[in-house]
Every structure is written in structure tokens, then in C-alpha cells.
Amino acid sequence: MILDRNAITQDVPINPETGKPYLNTVAAIQVSVSGAGSEVSPYVAQAVKVIRDSGLPQETNALFTDVEGDLDEVLHVAGEAAKKLAEQGYRTSLVLHMDIRPGFTGQLTEKPQIVDKLLSE
Question: Ranges for the Thiamine-binding protein domain (predicted)?
């Protein structure tokens, strides 16, 4: 399969284990609680731990944890991270921004590299 970053559509690979289309997704996930005071880091850390324990490639920055994987896996881990806090009785906020791009993988690192390259030219 040949990938073309400028193509409108790509061939959609099939996951050999499941037989389903593999829909690569890069997502920015933010989970927090409301009404717990001015410092929510202890709650955010619980949600981030769920994401990190998922085994999906991820990186945490000041506002989001970016994750990459199949669409179903990413949606599952985002839901589990939110449930970690909601099941404790907290009003929980989940912000989810996704780029679903069939055929591509490794975009968590490749996308920033492309931007850096363009900026250095």
C-alpha cells in the first residue's frame, strides 16, 4: 500500500487479527472534574494513568494527553479514563479531538516532525 499525504482518500488496511478496517486515530484527550476545588491535578493524574496503562502510544502535555491507535481502541480508552473519575461520583468533563486517518500510523511523532521540517525550510 502506497500512502499519499495529499490524497483525499487512502486504501483502508484490514486488521489481520480482527478482520475489521484499521482506522488509525490520533486523539487529544482531556479528562477533568468539576467542583473539586482549584487544583484538579490529582484527578487528572488518575485519568492519565488509565490512558498510559492502555498500552497505546501516548504523550501528556500541559492540557491534553495525545494518544494513537485504532478508532475503537482510542474511544474505549477515552471512555475508561472518564469513567475512572465519574465512577467516584465526580461531575466529569471529557474533551476529545480526533484525527482519523486510515492507512497512516506513527502520526503521533511524524506530524510534529513534518511541521518542524517545514519551519526549518
Answer: 28-114
Percent of the chain with pLDDT over 70: 99
Residue 11 domain-assigned (yes or no) = no
- Provide the residue range defining the domain that includes 47: 24-120
Separation CA 43–CA 20 (nearest Å)? 35
CATH number of the domain where residue 65 is located: 3.30.70.930
On whether the pTM is more than 0.85, the answer is yes
Residue 13 lies in a domain: no
Pick from 19, 11, 17: nearest CA to 104? 11
pLDDT in tens, 14-37: 989 899 999 999 999 999 999 888
